[in-house]
Amino acid sequence: MEQTLSIIKPDAVAKNVVGQILARFENAGLRIAVTKKIQLSRADAEAFYAVHAERPFFADLVEFMISGPVVVTVLEGENAMAKNRELMGATNPKEAAEGTIRADFAESIDANAVHGSDSAENADIEINFFFAQRDIV
Ligand code: ATP
Ligand code: MG
Question: Alpha-carbon distance 75 to 41, whole Å?
Fold first, then answer.
């Protein structure tokens, strides 16, 4: 079974919609292998988004990701990565399709409710960033 990483970002956690977002994953046939609520340190956020280090929005992205707790989840299922990306909707919530998580819960491209791995290779890296293999069941 394919695994992918989801992060419910600080804006959605602050809105108290964690359960509603996790339910969308389950309703779409994805299984929660492990989940935890954590406060990212600045070093965590910088390391996690290192691929975007040269982008103009990097500093704001890091500030946002450490502005409050996040919920990190390993999702498992057939085509888990693509399915999660579909449920999330476009990066900019104004462009996100109706009924997607970002269309329904996100305010802006900076505060866009969720993160999802964008390839099988990145999913592996991101899962190992947050979880030990023995935690994933
Ligand atoms: P994520 O990686 O968080 O799942 P994504 O894969 O849809 O989102 P990326 O291109 O990987 O989008 O960008 C990572 C994050 O950086 C976005 O979720 C968004 O919060 C922020 N971001 C991306 N592009 C911009 C931009 N043009 N202006 C401001 N923030 C941006
Ligand atoms: Mg991305």
Answer: 23
Query: Rounded distance, CA 22 to CA 6, Å?
Result: 10
Summarised one tens digit per residue, pLDDT across range 77-114 is: 999 999 999 999 999 999 999 999 999 999 999 999 99
Rounded Cα–Cα distance for residues 4 and 100 (Å): 18
Q: Is the pTM of this model over 0.85?
A: yes
* Rounded CA separation 124/129 (Å): 9
Q: Classify 113 as helix, strand or coil.
A: coil
Whose C-alpha lies nearest to ligand 1, atom 28? 57
Measured in degrees and rounded to the nearest 5, phi and psi for residue 103 equal -65, -40
Please work out whether the CB of residue 44 comes within 6 Å of at least one atom of ligand 1. no
